[in-house]
């Protein structure tokens, strides 16, 4: 047996995230939780070869900022990590880099949702189209062909890891199309009484947190200017943005979120995305009660998630057990074990979706 094919000899979780993220999550406490379950938590030094730092049983990461940077140094770092993963296929990666790349691209993310079966239970992603040109006439035609209606939200292509990923605009009319800043994604706005439901997913566990959102908007002829905003600021729990205040003439009905649909969203997206740590932004459309997925993020903030570290170590243990069992089965059967069966199925789904986008 080749040395690279051996199972990791120690229970080490190698992790990487920014210092800001680890301080926010109080990551020192997770180290204590890991030790209680027989794991050692070690931060990866991305400036050194991972071969000199292992062996690892698990690599847990939030590399979104580095992937999104896409400069020469970032590319070298990611290349080294991917080479290590290739050389050590038994190491569990949470989450696979290809899956994270999909979620960094809003256009690909919305296509993933579009190609699931969620529409069968009245869960959908609002109509969308990619905007790559500054030609206003061309973009208006593109919006019409895609069925994107006014008002729509103009969102940066990159969903995470940049200083501008949360800078968005509400476009009310054809005049406002000139305010689109390509490359971006235009997505029809769904009126939802200024309530956003954030689903924080950790493996098989999830938590719903209610947050403020944009108020109801309606199409305008040529008399309303584009509104620009920071989506992160608007949806914070303590936000006091005027954009979240409903007009006095509008009456607010009680929440109509459907727990069964939320469960289906988590189960379905986890399968299609091959992800364990992600967040889903859901709104409920006024009058129709349809549930709309308007964004998905890799490794969100997990604000308000009870016993996050306990659920995270549960996720690590269960995913590792699934990975070991799956690979053991295929080894006994004589099949290639470079990826587990579930990983291959999820990757095939993503590839079939992404190759047309």
Automatic annotation (TrEMBL):
Binds 2 magnesium ions per subunit. ATP binds at residues 106, 155, 187-198, 213. It is an enzyme of class 2 (transferase). Mg(2+) 1 binds at residues 281, 295. Residues 231-252 have a biased composition (Low complexity). Its cofactor is Mg(2+). GO terms for molecular function: ATP binding; inositol-1,3,4-trisphosphate 5-kinase activity; inositol-1,3,4-trisphosphate 6-kinase activity; inositol-3,4,5,6-tetrakisphosphate 1-kinase activity; magnesium ion binding. 1D-myo-inositol 1,3,4-trisphosphate binds at residues 21, 62, 166, 198, 297, 301. It holds the Pfam family Ins134_P3_kin. Its EC number is 2.7.1.134. Residues 123-317 form the Inositol 1,3,4-trisphosphate 5/6-kinase ATP-grasp domain. Residues 12-99 form the Inositol-tetrakisphosphate 1-kinase N-terminal domain. Transmembrane segments: none annotated. Residues 231-255, 333-357 are annotated as: Disordered. GO terms for biological process: inositol trisphosphate metabolic process. Kinase that can phosphorylate various inositol polyphosphate such as Ins(3,4,5,6)P4 or Ins(1,3,4)P3. Monomer. This is Inositol-tetrakisphosphate 1-kinase. It comes from Aphis glycines (Soybean aphid).
């Amino acid at each position: 047996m080749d040395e690279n094919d051996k199972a990791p000899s120690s229970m080490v979780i190698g992790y990487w995230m920014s210092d800001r993220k680890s301080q926010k999550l109080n990551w020192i406490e997770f180290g204590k939780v890991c030790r209680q379950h027989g794991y050692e938590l070690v931060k990866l030094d991305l400036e050194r070869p991972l071969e000199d730092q292992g062996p690892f049983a698990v690599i847990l990461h939030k590399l979104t900022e580095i992937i999104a940077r896409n400069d020469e140094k970032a590319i070298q770092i990611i290349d080294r990590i991917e080479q290590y993963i290739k050389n050590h296929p038994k190491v569990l990666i949470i989450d696979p880099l290809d899956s994270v790349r999909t979620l960094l691209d809003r256009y690909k993310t919305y296509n993933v949702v579009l190609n699931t079966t969620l529409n069968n239970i009245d869960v959908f992603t609002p109509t969308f189209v990619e905007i790559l040109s500054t030609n206003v006439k061309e973009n208006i035609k593109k919006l019409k062909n895609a069925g994107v209606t006014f008002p729509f939200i103009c969102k940066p292509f990159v969903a995470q890891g940049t200083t501008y990923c949360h800078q968005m605009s509400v476009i009310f009319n054809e005049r406002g199309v000139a305010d689109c800043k390509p490359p971006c994604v235009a997505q029809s706005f769904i009126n939802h009484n200024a309530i956003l439901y954030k689903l924080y997913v950790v493996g098989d566990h999830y938590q719903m947190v209610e947050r403020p959102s944009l108020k109801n908007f309606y199409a305008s002829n040529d008399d309303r200017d584009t509104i620009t905003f920071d989506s992160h600021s608007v949806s914070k729990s303590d936000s006091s943005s005027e954009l979240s205040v409903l007009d006095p003439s509008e009456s607010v009905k009680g929440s109509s979120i459907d727990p069964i649909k939320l469960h289906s969203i988590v189960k379905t997206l986890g399968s299609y995305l091959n992800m364990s740590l992600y967040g889903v932004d859901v709104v409920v459309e006024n009058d129709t009660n349809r549930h709309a997925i308007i964004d998905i993020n890799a490794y969100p903030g997990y604000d308000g998630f009870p016993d996050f570290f306990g659920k995270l170590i549960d996720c690590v243990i269960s995913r590792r057990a699934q990975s070991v069992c799956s690979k053991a089965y295929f080894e006994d059967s004589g099949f290639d074990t470079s990826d587990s069966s579930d990983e291959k199925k999820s990757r095939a789904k993503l590839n079939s979706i992404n190759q047309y986008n």
